[in-house]
Amino acid sequence: MYLEAVNLTKRYGKFYALNDLNVKVEGSKCVGYLGPNGAGKTTTLKLFTSLLRPTRGEAIINGHSVQKDKVQALKDVAAVVETPELYPTFTPEEILQMSCALRSVNKCDIKHALEEVGMYEWRNKRVGKFSKGMKQRIALAAALVGNPEILILDEPTSGMDPRGMAEIREVIRNMKKSQRLIFMSSHLLSEVAEVCDEVIMIDRGKFVLHSSMDDVIKRFGGNSVYVTVLEMPDMAKIESIPGVKSVEKVSENRLNIVYEPGEDAQYRILKELIYAGVKVTEYNAAKQMLENAYLKLIGGDRND
Amino acid sequence: MIEVHKVLSLYRFQILWHKRSMALWILLLLTLAVVAGIIFEPYLLNPRAHVSVHSVAESLSGGSTFVILLAALFLGSDALSREFQRKTAYFLLPTPVKRVTILTAKFLGTYIVSGVLLLIYFGVGAGYMAVAYHAVPVRYFASMALAYLYLASLLAFTYMFSAVFDSGAAVATLIFMIVIFGNVVIFLVENVMHIEPWFWLWYGTGIITLVYAGSYIGDYSHISLGPMGNTTYNPYIWEGILIMLGYFIISFLVAAWCFERKELR
What we know:
heterodimer; A: 304 residues; alpha/beta; globular; B: 265 residues; mainly alpha; 72% helix
């Protein structure tokens, strides 16, 4: 299973929303698609789901061009693009029945799909009065009901409260367990770092980076880790931990520790910090490294 | 090509959509009001008047064109545009189904719902004639069949605009304007320029009531009124059928083309 963009271009007048994108994602994994607002993320997903027609190039899914053979290309694909509105007078059960009919699914396990997103008890209520988060979960259930190989998700937690975001992330993590390729755009770096295995970055419609999360950490993280603490410890004490090269206080309760290469050192430092009584509340390299990569490649002058 | 099996599994959702909409119930009330108005109007105007069954049937057939117009405005005008306006297209379109299949399924659903309303209209009319006159003219059923053809052509014509515009209200207004002002323009074309308006859908729909003409009047009649006179063209039955079929086919193809090319920016 794979998605491939070949010279994929979308132009509106003189403005290139997407310019010669060439990228291929393959296998059972989660790929995060990052970029600032207006970078071309949603445009790409719309091109892959035939909601837009490319000016040039092709979007290919499992060997079939979305533009030339939509039915075959999207056969094993489910997409949730731009938080779709659902038919307000339909119930979740009817929405999922419709999704099955659209995907020609013979064995339609609506109960399982609704349970997976925690909406089974709402199955007979009309969706018109549901919150955005509930609608998003129904949309995800509608995507899951056909048991697709490939899932295309456009900012799945956008506009949700923290609880809703956590719930959707949990749903996506569960989706990953079922041998699927998840291609997910997001404006939340931490979300991508938390859920995804690979990351693609675009900016102003142009490709910037495609790399595994581990590579991003290696390339952009160097050998440093960000540590959040309850109380600021004695810096000299931390510098004395074997393997630590330098310590920098980045905020009131945050430290940046540069250490000698190797994951062993990273583990040893955490162990020593705890042993030394430092009240660590967060110790995460990946999230920060992704942010470093993002700022280095795309720049910090714009949001997300 | 249209995927027939998918059309057959999808059209019921369009029916469900209409069934749960307020518009359908308003339309049902209007349909009953129109049929009641046509049945009781002669009695209200002149209680002692004797109205023949033939005349009642012809009035009912004429009234059906109004019900069909209402059905197109209420059910057809936002059938596609609403998908874009309310963003439900984001759920409907990124699926392994050709857009022409989705369009056909939606059209079929709307046609069935509108057809049921038309059946109620003609059914109430036939019931009244059966009770009051103990007879229903055979031509009433011929007219009914032609009304169903008109329904298909007008719905396709409405769907065509619905595939272009994002607002159902805009489509309904446009269709209404076309019917009102278009008929005035065509009347002038017919009378002043003496051109048979074979290209005009509402010219073709004249056969819905012309089937009652005992000695069928043929192509046109001319009444001398001063220097200009008045020429009224009448379509033959086959002409009316061809015009309606032509509108149906062309409108449906244009709707499919527009819907296929519509982008969700």
